[in-house]
Specification:
With about 140 residues, the chain is mainly beta. It has one helix at about 1-15; strands spanning about 30-40, 45, 55-60, 65-70, 75-90, 95-100, 105-115, 115-120, 125-130.
């Protein structure tokens, strides 16, 4: 009985720590995001210290694209020109990004979004934690 009560308390604490995504927060998705950590479904974490690519999101009226870009030392970006079309959808008060390319379709739930943090989760329960990218320049 004590284990059940403890489990219930821990579960409630975890749920209460989850910040609900609000419609007005979705504009924060726009811009450059750098992967910081991936959390596997078993709880194992993989940290990313250095990234060669950054994700650029552009969304207007719940539609837009995501593109992989490579930061350059002069503060600019290069890209391979490939864009993933995205659409923001709501399902039971949860927000999802639906991606589509000529190769396939998939979606990720927006778990958290703030000025400097973005957390997305795919259907395999992999959580991708991003931080806002800060460009560098040798100028």
């Amino acid at each position: 009985m004590m284990k059940k009560v403890s489990l219930l308390i821990v579960t409630l604490l975890l749920i209460s720590c989850h910040t609900a995504v609000k419609k007005e927060d979705l504009t924060k998705l726009n811009g450059y995001w750098e992967i910081k950590q991936v959390k596997l479904s078993n709880g194992e974490k993989k940290d990313y210290e250095v990234n060669e690519t950054v994700d650029f999101f552009e969304v207007k009226n719940n539609a837009g694209f995501r593109q992989k870009v490579m930061p350059q030392f002069d503060g600019k970006f290069t890209t391979n020109g490939i864009k993933e079309n995205i659409k923001i959808v709501v399902d039971n008060n949860d927000y999802f990004i639906e991606y589509s390319t000529s190769y396939g379709k998939w979606k990720e739930e927006i778990i958290e979004i703030a000025d400097s943090v973005l957390v997305l989760q795919n259907k395999e329960k992999l959580q991708y934690e991003y931080k806002r990218f800060t460009p560098f320049s040798l100028k």
